[in-house]
Amino acid sequence: MSRKQSRKCKQDKLQVPKLEALEQINLDAAGLDIGDAEIYVAVPEGRDSESVRVFQTFTRDLHSLADWLAACNVKTVAMESTGVYWIPIYEILEERGFQVYLVNARHVKNVPGRKTDILDCQWIQQLHTYGLLRASFRPPEDVCALRALVRHRDTLIRSSVAEIQRMQKALQQMNVKLTNVISDITGVTGMSIIRDILAGERDSRKLAAHRDFRCKKSEEEIAKSLEGNYKPEHVFALAQSLQAHDFYQGQIKTCDVEIKEQYEAFEPQVDVTEHPLTPGKQPKPRRNEPDFDLRLYLYQMAGVDLTRIPGIGVLTTQKVLSETGVDMSPWPTNKHFASWLSLCPHNDKTGGKIIRSKTKKSQNRAAAALRIAATSLLHSKSALGGYYRSMRARLGKPEAVTATAHKLARIIYAMLKNQTEYRDPGEGYYEGQARQRAINNLKRKAKKLGFELVSNQV
After folding, report:
1. Which residues, listed in sequence order, are joined to residue 79 by a DSSP beta bridge?
2. What's the pTM?
3. Which tens digit of pLDDT belongs to each residue from 285-304?
4. CB half-sphere exposure, 341, CA atoms < 13 A
């Protein structure tokens, strides 16, 4: 069959749908353009003498805005997710019973059309009327509260880390090479030495006597590193940074108390008396983990123990659940879930050819946590560890991290949706699959060349 005949055959089989004019879906729709000081609101024409109004962003004005929308018989509202300005009006409108669409600004710009001589709020209102806007995912209110606390906790940790870096800088300026002999200056040995320095002690041997028995370096080496040039201005900077670090550590503990109360407000998904948490070999607790039993609270919240997945610790589980919640119904399949996390290829096609297939750039915190978890599987004696090493050898580190994070996301989706526990198939599971694929490829090539591949294994 010639190429022309083949093309004609495909055209005959192809059923081309008839394009009709766009139909108005949301007749009672409003559009909001939110700023720091003013909010422009557009409603359908004929609902009021003015179809566009401007409101200030004070709380009283936000309630007046909601009253005006109700008077105009508006049932659904669309707004762009601009900064954090949308949060108060979103919460107020949701409490008043409106169906609120939080729209990605990128999606609004990607919709073709002329926007000349009309306001942004009118453009959003028109697009929403024709059903061209899709609401962004927002978890339930209790999960949003947990998410805000977890994000705030991460901010406190980053601030604390910044003060540690300033402490290291002050020590280097005094030529105190403490970082050369201990791995962490905020450990038992480091903090004891720093506090003694700020108390006025300058004898390096007395300072080195604070060495913890677990420290690998000897007292002599530590004493040698503490023979510095203790200038008053650098000691002052060290004291300020230590006070700030202690302050942030206290704030983190206070935040942990609030997070614990938020977990207690969740309705448990599992009765721990009937289905107790299975004890397992847990990794060494990280420094930033809270004092309470976070693993138990996460188990009660999710109904399954996600920490049984290799590479997934309690802090990673907390970050993922605080971003996604435990209800997987917003994503029909695990592919939709991975796409929302931006952990799958984003295929750009033109002329039937894929010109780009890289993952989309995203600031999704859950995806970032899964990527970090994927990197920790390099030396894991598990199936996921074998998968990561196989992908790393075949694709390279960046692509292997994304592929493993994608697999972790699919596992989490299946566990939360089906309420099933994770069972590790073993280190050789994926390695065996890779070996079998290689054998099949060799057999296919041998058959194509007229040979037969025979195994010499008994």
Report:
1. 32, 102
2. 0.84
3. 677 889 899 999 999 999 99
4. 30
Count Cβ atoms below 10 Å from residue 384 Cβ, excluding itself.
Answer: 25
| Residues 412/303, Cβ–Cβ less than 8 Å | no
Contact 407, 385 (CB under 8 A): no
- Which amino acid is residue 132, in one-letter code? L
The answer to whether residues 270 and 326 touch, using CB atoms and an 8 Å cutoff, is: no
**pLDDT tens digit string along 330-380?**
999 999 999 999 998 877 766 677 777 778 888 899 999 999 999 999 998
Three-state SS string over the chain comes to CCHHHHHHHHHHHCCCCCCCCCCCCCCCEEEEEECCCEEEEECCCCCCCCCEEEEECCHHHHHHHHHHHHHCCCCEEEEECCCCCHHHHHHHHHHCCCEEEEECHHHHHHCCCCCCCCCHHHHHHHHHHCCCCCCCCCCCHHHHHHHHHHHHHHHHHHHHHHHHHHHHHHHHHCCCCHHHCCCCCCCHHHHHHHHHHHCCCCCHHHHHCCCCCCCCCCHHHHHHHCCCCCCHHHHHHHHHHHHHHHHHHHHHHHHHHHHHHHHHHCCCCCCCCCCCCCCCCCCCCCCCCCCCCHHHHHHHHHCCCHHHCCCCCHHHHHHHHHHHCCCCCCCCCHHHHHHHCCCCCCCEEECCEEEECCCCCCCCHHHHHHHHHHHCCCCCCCHHHHHHHHHHHHHCHHHHHHHHHHHHHHHHHHHHHHCCCCCCCCCHHHHHHHHHHHHHHHHHHHHHCCCCCCCCCC
Mean pLDDT over all residues of the chain? 87
* Predicted pLDDT of residue 190: 92
Q: What angle do CA 436, 441, 446 make, to 5 degrees?
A: 125
Over residues 114-156, the pLDDT tens digits come to 565 568 888 899 889 988 888 889 999 999 999 999 999 999 9
Residue 433 carries which side chain, given as an amino acid letter? Q
